[in-house]
Design a protein that fits this description.
The chain has about 200 residues and is α/β, with parallel strands linked by helices. The protein has a single domain (about 1-200), classed as Maf protein. It has helices spanning about 10-20, 50-65, 95-105, 175-180, 180-200, and strands at about 1-5, 25-30, 65-75, 115-130, 130-145, 160. A six-stranded mixed sheet has the order 2-1-3-4-5-6. Helix 1 links the parallel strand 1 (about 1-5) and strand 2 (about 25-30). Helix 4 crosses helix 5 (about 180-200). The protein is globular, with a radius of gyration of 17 Å. Bound molecules: inosinic acid (IMP). Inosinic acid binds near residues 73, 74, 154 and 155.
Amino acid sequence: MLKLLIASSNHGKISEIKDFLQGLEINAIGLSDLADAYAVPEETGSTFEENAIIKAEYYFTKTGLLTLADDSGLEVDALDGRPGVCSARYGGRGISSAGQINLLLEELRDVPEARRTARFICAIALIGPDVRRIFEGRCEGRISSEPRGDKGFGYDPIFLAPESGKSFAELEREEKTALSHRGMALRKCRNYLNDLSLKT
Ligand code: IMP
């Protein structure tokens, strides 16, 4: 069975990725399942892809295991792509998701609906012996004028999904995954891992 390290200590993220890999001949583990604890690498890249590669390469070098790492965030057109790769850090240390949402809405206060376009992006890097692949997913949408819904996490309450116009926080998990940047990247990654597991 193919062993895969998911380079995250976020249990929500690990369980979401494991759900996606169900049915494959893959034994997926998270960072907390490793015998050694490693310092977290600095995410110094200027793109989601670069940061995903930094993380996957770091843990592959440390462990020798096939490693999957993801990096994601929100690009807002009226803010020239911010918060982008700084989505998790937007607003500074210790700020809550609600605080980040308020800050973003404040920055967009005078921006009319037609110019509130945005997208979530997710890059997944898969790095291992003889493997170096990137999978990307994007979801185009719009920033609402106020938060809506209580599901999901991060910027979900202010990201309006295409077509339905519901916020990501108003969607069930499966509905969000069918549309989301992470769902799209994970579906591509799953197909590749399926082929890889059949060859090992
Ligand atoms: P990371 O990919 O774990 O570094 O986190 C990226 C940051 O982007 C998160 O902390 C969230 O603020 C934001 N983000 C990424 N994906 C989503 C999503 O699906 N919904 C809401 N916020 C997201």
